[in-house]
Write a structure and sequence with these properties.
By secondary structure, the chain is an alpha+beta fold. About 20% of the residues lie in helices and about 40% in strands. The chain is built from 5 helices and 12 strands. Strands 1-9-2-3-12-11-10 form a 7-stranded mixed β-sheet. A 5-stranded mixed β-sheet has the order 4-7-8-6-5.
């Protein structure tokens, strides 16, 4: 899990790359439902194996539960469910990636875990190799996508962490779930 891979080595050898100072960003890549996604490593705190999850009643369907991370309660989101797909099955390679996200209160941050099928590698991707998110044709909301990069002949979807893990949107989902459960009683 500790590999750092240079994406598109030819771009870094390009003569204009030296002159223009091509900026590269590092992304953690992971698999989710057979597709490769990535998140900027700047917001990643750590990666842990999937274990000891406590379910919490009346939470949105995309929240699997919470974990105790060195004394702190950290909510864990099923990223596949958040994208409107079936929940991620727990297998030997399933991990929880702990991510620091911005909260509704400016300047405050919260740790949140996301369940992924498996972690792949840390890639250095030149910003010139990142295309904007398409406005249609994707299987997830376009505002969840920061961009798309082509790495070694395959597309990698770069996620916008603050949109995908928006604490405001998730709390609204929880309130909607709670009110629909109460009205059913």
């Amino acid at each position: 899990m500790n590999a750092l891979v240079k994406a598109d080595k030819q771009a870094s050898r390009h003569p204009l790359a030296v002159q223009t100072g091509v900026e590269e960003k590092q992304y953690l890549t992971f698999m989710l439902g057979g597709e490769m996604f990535s998140i900027s490593i700047l917001c990643i705190k750590e990666i842990i194996w999937y274990a000891n999850l406590t379910e919490v009643p009346m939470m949105p369907a995309c929240i699997r539960g919470v974990i105790n991370l060195r004394g702190a309660v950290v909510p864990v989101m099923d990223l596949s469910n958040r994208f409107g797909k079936p929940s991620t099955p727990v297998v030997k390679s399933t991990c929880i990636v702990i991510i620091e996200v911005e909260t509704q209160n400016e300047g405050e941050h919260q740790n949140m875990g996301v369940v992924v099928d498996s972690v792949q590698a840390v890639l250095e991707i030149p910003t010139s190799e990142i295309e904007p998110a398409p406005s249609f044709g994707t299987k997830i909301r376009s505002d969840f996508i920061e961009g798309i990069a082509k790495v070694n002949g395959k597309f990698v979807i770069l996620l916008n962490v603050n949109r995908v893990l928006s604490t405001e949107e998730i709390s609204q989902m929880g309130q909607a779930a709670s009110s629909s459960e109460l009205s059913a009683v």
